[in-house]
Specification:
Number of helices: 4
Largest sheet: 5 strands, mixed
Helix content: 25-40%
Strand content: 25-35%
Structural class: alpha+beta
Radius of gyration: 22 Å
Order of helices and strands: EEHHEEEHH
Number of strands: 5
CATH architecture of the largest domain: Roll
Number of domains: 2
Distance between the termini: 79 Å
């Protein structure tokens, strides 16, 4: 009797997430877990040739062998580059002044 792995497959959208547990034979891959989960039928927008996948937040190729209790994650493309988004927030804070800076200004003006 071959050992079985219990693996979660997840895909998150901005307003909801899908988490599906599957049981697979030992030696199963990321791609096999995704296919066995049925998540591709639930979310036809998932294109494994285009989207990245990973295990517990670390990017992995589809042929990566899984271990028991791994969480396979399907990542959506980023809308904005994280560095660009952070720089925009910093620029906005500099333009408007930080909350801490306004508190000190208010105390000094009394």
């Amino acid at each position: 009797m071959s050992a079985q792995l219990c693996v979660d497959v997840c895909y998150a959208l901005p307003d909801a997430q899908t988490l599906i547990s599957v049981s697979l034979p030992e030696g199963a891959t990321v791609q096999q877990a995704i296919e066995a989960s049925g998540i591709l039928a639930r979310h036809p927008e998932i294109d494994l040739a285009r989207l990245k996948v990973g295990v517990y937040g670390k990017l992995k190729p589809l042929d990566t062998a899984l271990a028991d209790h791994d969480r396979v994650e399907i990542y959506r493309p980023l809308i904005v580059d994280p560095k660009t988004a952070r720089q925009r927030r910093v620029d906005k804070t500099r333009r408007e002044g930080s909350v801490e800076g306004r508190k000190w200004q208010n105390k000094d003006s009394r």
